[in-house]
Specification:
This protein folds into three domains: 196 residues, Rossmann fold (3-Layer(aba) Sandwich); 61 residues, Roll (SH3 type barrels), CATH 2.30.30; 83 residues, Elongation Factor Tu (Ef-tu), domain 3, CATH 2.40.30. The protein is 24% helix and 28% strand. The protein is built from eight helices and 17 strands.
Length: 367
């Protein structure tokens, strides 16, 4: 069963399986009920595009509504994370809890044995179980978002685009006459769509104004609520100008929840934005168990970041990991994921809980 979104990636994934002679059907998944008429989610348009692809390829199209699973297992946790001072990444949960869980369960009831998506990643079946690798296109690799799948989910996953670059995918769709070949890639919050984020978020998070302060405690403005900001944020702070003789952009460096204060600093490479050490919890290993530690490997602390050399050790309480980087990392945000790699192989990852061991002033930052 192919998860067909109405976009070019899943369309070409479906076509490749059809051309390979794989018995295949497709299913369109709707995960958000609100505001379709507002032009943000455009579910009806996406479904029509998916239907045109299936008509072109002669493949039956099913539809499933997974909005309850998305709301309960992804969106509610996303909002709670924001209210708790984190910067959650809903795409990781969406893959684990919706696409390869709720969607996959419905597909199995229709007789499907495997689940295919348009992700840019690769799976290899080894003697000890499935292994996850980066996609061939470094600009589109999505293994970061798939690292939390368990072995059963990964073992049933098929990624027909793993060996392709995005430009090749569009070219294949264009030659085949698939309707979405020039459709713009979707961005924004997973399944919620593209929209002005702050006004949308205000519908679910109560505003709680408080002071914006410098690291030395000088008040420079007022924020609408800590949940509306993330570490490293520059735009939307509503402050500017000179302070202590400095003329440089302001960045969010920390959130002081005890005082409901947003802490800001001036300058992209301010030491308060740099960390060499991260504590990571809720760790999931693709192999099902941790490799021998300490482990020398690479990590990404955000999507599309260049691989960063680090050493992984057990956390002090044995329930987390301690990541120490060769180069200081910029704006490590609690709630985001640190995903570990050995070359092109994704080993797993976990949620960033805290950052520490600030480097000295003037240190270069990790990309």
């Amino acid at each position: 069963m192919v998860a067909l979104s109405g976009g070019v990636d899943s369309a070409v994934a479906l076509m490749r399986l059809v051309e390979a002679g794989v018995p295949v059907q497709a299913m369109f998944m709707k995960n958000w009920e609100e505001d379709d008429q507002g032009g943000y989610c455009a579910a009806a348009e996406d479904f029509a595009d998916a239907q045109r692809v299936c008509d072109r390829l002669g493949i039956p199209l099913h539809a499933v509504n997974c909005s309850d699973a998305y709301w309960n297992d992804v969106f509610v946790r996303f909002i709670r994370g924001l209210e708790g001072g984190l910067t959650p990444n809903p795409d990781v949960l969406c893959n684990r809890k919706v696409k390869f869980s709720a969607f996959a369960e419905h597909a199995r009831r229709l007789g499907a044995e495997r689940i295919a998506t348009g992700h840019y990643a690769r799976v290899e079946q080894a003697g000890d179980g499935p292994r996850l690798f980066k996609g061939a296109d470094p600009a589109k690799d999505q293994s970061y978002f798939l690292h939390a799948l368990d072995r059963t989910q990964l073992g049933q996953a098929v990624f027909p685009l793993g060996d392709l670059h995005k430009r090749e995918v569009r070219a294949i769709a264009r030659r085949a006459g698939l309707a979405p070949h020039d459709k713009r890639d979707s961005t924004g919050l997973c399944f919620v769509g593209e929209r002005r984020f702050a006004p949308f978020l205000a519908r679910f998070v109560t505003e709680s104004p408080g002071p914006i302060e410098t690291g030395t405690g000088v008040r420079v403005g007022e924020h609408r609520g800590l949940a509306f900001f993330t570490i490293g944020q520059r735009k939307g702070l509503g402050i500017g100008g000179r302070h202590d003789g400095a003329q440089a952009p302001w960045y969010v460096a920390a959130k002081d929840h005890a005082r409901n204060a947003l802490i800001v600093v001036q300058g992209h490479d301010h030491p308060a934005l740099l960390s060499r050490r991260l504590r990571v919890r809720d760790v999931r290993w693709i192999a099902g168990a941790a490799p021998p530690l300490p482990l020398r490997c690479h990590a990404k602390i955000r999507y599309r970041q260049a691989d960063q050399a680090c050493t992984v050790r057990p956390g002090e309480d044995g329930d987390a990991l301690d990541l120490r980087f060769e180069q200081p990392q910029w704006a490590a945000a609690p709630g985001q994921y640190a995903v570990l790699y050995d070359g092109d192989e994704c080993l797993g990852g976990g949620v960033i809980e805290s950052a520490g061991d600030k480097p000295p002033a003037g240190a270069s930052r990790g990309a």
